[in-house]
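Reopening this one. Same input as before:
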Amino acid sequence: MIELTPVQRRDLRARAHHLNPVVTIAGNGLTPTVVAEIERSLQAHELIKVKVQGTEREQRDALMSELCATLDAAPVQHIGNILVVWRQRREEAKDANPTTQKSGARPSTAKSAAAFAAAARRAALAKASAEARRSPARAPASRGRGPGSGTRGR
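Same output, byte for byte:
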């Protein structure tokens, strides 16, 4: 079980305030499937809330310590029927067999919103310039007496 300093615990409690519970532990208790789901949630989010139903406070305390010992996580907070648990994301094992990767494929990279918008602008400008080259040159506007010609009902 991971031990947290009071400052770390306070910061994690503040970050967890707006979260909703991702796992509910009900009458069957801490089954292997529930532990596996909490494991997946911790790997994905690091900080999660777990809702416990139908137990007394002492049972919830024991459940919290058992959960944290099983998953090597840190207990952040136990308030009412909600348990807040944190564990740093574990590194996933990389595939050691390079033959499973597509040949010539580039690894995917995450882009920021600004980079995505810049790429979209470049693509739109390239498309517009290509269309401008394909379309015939437009004739200059005529100077007749149409709307907006500058003359008022003479």
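So the earlier flakiness isn't reproducible anymore. For the record, DSSP finds four helices and four strands in the chain.
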